[in-house]
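Review form for a predicted model. The reviewer records the input and the model, then writes brief findings.
Reviewer: anonymous (R2)
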Amino acid sequence: MALHNESAILASAPDIGRLSVLQDGELGLDRAERHAGANEPWSYRSPRLSSRLLLVAARGQVEIRSRENVELLTEGAAAFVEQGRSVDISLRSGGAYEIYLFHMTADSERKAQAGAGQGSEGFGCLSWPSLEHDAIAALCEKICARSRGETALERLGCRAALQELIYTMLRSEGSPETDTTVVAVERTKRYIDEHYAQRLTIDRLCRMARLNPKYYMELFKKLYGISPIAYLNRRRMAAARVLLLIPGASVREVSRRVGFSDEYYFSRKFKQYAGMALRSSAAAGSCGSLPTTIPSRGN
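Model under review:
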């Protein structure tokens, strides 16, 4: 089935204005860090970043906090943080993890306007489908390897790999121009399935599909019988039901693991979905032993 509505399709390139760090054409690398391990604590904190930071979660789940915002990054996601911002990054589960931190430099007249495209929180997030994961992880490895080089040619290669990484992540979040509108909407549904713990909005999903909001929501409901946000909440609640079966699991932890920053709002939504209130014994703040991965399928 191929449905088309030319007036509804956005002809412009994917909007990256919300990630002002990507607007600089001359991004370079100050240093690269790879942190990997299993079943051990890891964190990174800076009260004020001296350079722009690109965080890539190649494996595991991490929570990134600023003074104004908090975001959960699942495997296959990245965050860009502007220079001068505070940041607190920590693992959110046990098991294996592989985290890359790229401290970037930029020679641009827009540097003085850093953060203008990202809002008050000072960072923006991207995710990519699982089929792109190996390529992006390989690019991260390449950047780390080349960053240790001492020659001008090696530094040039490192810079090129960084640019390719950013391009690949942006391209992966957008929808190819050859997609039909149905394929584009199907792509966003798979994206929700894989990344429902992220902060997803209609605006972001529309950018991925290159459709205007009204047409996108109409087509999604026509294909699946439910609105995009209702489908997102259904996916989150299905995952929450699994996590809440773990003895000692707290409401606060489960709510964050499935994409809710407000545990009380999560409790109300869960009652609407499940027809029952959360047990008071799941006391907020007393974390139980949760699975190392969030369920990624099922309704």
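Findings: Confidence is low (pLDDT under 50) at residues 1-18, 108-121, 280-299.
Further findings: Helices lie at 133-147, 152-173, 181-195, 202-209, 213-224, 228-243, 251-257, 263-274.
Recommendation: see findings above.
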